[in-house]
């Protein structure tokens, strides 16, 4: 996908949640933040549909981010589906690492590369 400045855009970053299990002061202050209503968070099928359309337009790399993406349930399954998507060459994930140990085995399953 070529933007108006002639740059090739092949990278898409998707926030899968605005929630996090940490409270870094510059991001989630003690007094809290107003979270987006669950109904406004992209559902898995919506994420997959967006990625299919973007892959058809030339996106090759997808980064899943948050908040903390690993607090969202079903992440290993979503990652696997994205990795198996036609046109997508790489799927990565930002994480604060807190839940990585318990989810690593599932994330490292079929379709996952770092
Ligand atoms: S999203 Fe990142 S910066 Fe924000 S509270 Fe969580 S770990 Fe900290």
Describe the protein in words:
This protein has a 3-stranded parallel sheet with strand order 1-2-3, with helices on one face. The mean pLDDT is 92. The chain has 3 helices and 3 strands; from the N terminus they run E-H-E-H-E-H. With 114 residues, the chain is of the alpha/beta class. The two termini are 24 Å apart. Iron/sulfur cluster binds next to loops.
Précis, in short:
This protein is α/β, with parallel strands linked by helices.
Mean pLDDT: 92
- What's the multimeric state? single chain
What gyration radius follows from the Cα positions, in whole Å?
15 Å
Estimate the strand proportion.
5-15%
Looking at the structure, what is the overall shape?
Answer: globular
Roughly how many Å apart are the termini? 24 Å
Give the helix level as a range of percent. Answer: 25-40%
In this entry the ligands are:
iron/sulfur cluster
The biggest beta sheet, please? Answer: 3 strands, parallel
Strand order of the largest sheet: 1-2-3
Ranges with pLDDT <50 over ≥5 residues?
Answer: none
Q: How many beta-strand segments?
A: 3
Could you say which structural class the secondary elements and strand pairing correspond to?
Answer: alpha/beta
User: How large is the count of helical segments?
Assistant: 3
User: From N to C, what is the helix and strand string?
Assistant: EHEHEH
